[in-house]
Amino acid sequence: MYGFLRQPKWLAAHALVLVLLPTFIGAGIWQYTRHLDRQGVNDAAAARAALVDLDETSLASISANNDEYRGISVLGVWSPDDAVIIRNRSRNGAAGCHLAVPFDTVEAVDLLVVAGWLTETSCVSTGTDYRLPAGQVQLTARLRATQTRGSLGPRDAAEGRLESL
Predict the structure, then answer these.
(1) How is residue 4 annotated by DSSP?
(2) Which of 35, 51, 82, 124 is disulfide-compatible with 71, CB 3.0–4.6 A?
(3) What is the DSSP track for 13-41?
């Protein structure tokens, strides 16, 4: 009555199911673990989100691991002449770039601030035509760790002035 189950195509189908079943279970466990890890990052970001005015000693002792996503409020001056375009960024599905501008704080600690997102047509070059406030300003921002370059892709020039990354 069930003799057809011994045919090669049925045996191959059963073998395939026996291989795929643990694979799918393992993938589900992996995905759940990723969810728990991301939830931990979100909880840490929410805990650090309280805005804090940092003084010179605490600003100089910032740790990328302990202070990422921490809110800060510092006094300083924008340096638009040293602005850098960070290419190949997207926002709501549109291509563009980030404008990263150095911010010199009163405490003599330099921060690189992603000042905003630009459309692809505005990403031609950096310059001083971006409308940043002149003089001393109060910057309220959220700290992020520096991104590291992967093993593939172009490298930045060792010398000279960078205008885009």
Answers:
(1) G
(2) 51
(3) HHHHHHHHHHHHHHHHHHHHHHHHHHHHH
